[in-house]
């Protein structure tokens, strides 16, 4: 899957607003080119209150997020908020226990579902360049994350 294919797939889910960071939308320069997927069907949630259910990151964030070595040519990372239950199904431990498990993962591996190198504790998973092995699973995880975001969106009393 390419970045564009992921954007087309996730952006095509009902109520999704996709923001690709750039100078024109006031994003910090380090994030330019990264894409953020929000459930915001009315397109009216203030920017400071939006929380993505998935992102595509295209480069290292120096001093913060470098474990995936995203500065390699053509490498990007799809990040998905999979939720606690799904995280535990994927990795056989709860997100809160990630610090004790993190050394067991190669965060530079391509086409493998791994815990997010920074946000695993918050139940995020990642895939560098989803391909033949993980492309279908990436779509499933994106669809599930979208459904969870929709459920949390302006819950009815």
Overview of this structure, please?
With 157 residues, the chain is an alpha+beta fold. It has a single domain, classed as Aspartate Aminotransferase, domain 1 (Alpha-Beta Complex). 25% of the residues lie in helices and 17% in strands. The chain has helices spanning 3-11, 84-91, 98-101, 135-152; strands at residues 16-20, 35-39, 54-57, 77-81, 113-115, 124-128. It has a 6-stranded antiparallel β-sheet with strand order 1-2-3-4-6-5, with helices on one face. It starts with a helix and ends in a 5-residue tail after the last helix.
Helix-strand layout with pairing:
Elements: H1 3-11, E1 16-20, E2 35-39, E3 54-57, E4 77-81, H2 84-91, H3 98-101, E5 113-115, E6 124-128, H4 135-152
Antiparallel strand pairs: 1-2, 2-3, 3-4, 4-6, 5-6
In short:
With 157 residues, this protein is an alpha+beta fold. The chain has 4 helices and 6 strands; from the N terminus they run H-E-E-E-E-H-H-E-E-H. 31% of the residues are buried.
Which CATH architecture? Alpha-Beta Complex
The CATH topology is: Aspartate Aminotransferase, domain 1
Major sheet strand order: 1-2-3-4-6-5
Order of helices and strands: HEEEEHHEEH
List keywords for this structure.
alpha+beta, 157 residues, Aspartate Aminotransferase, domain 1, 17% strand, six-stranded antiparallel beta sheet, single chain
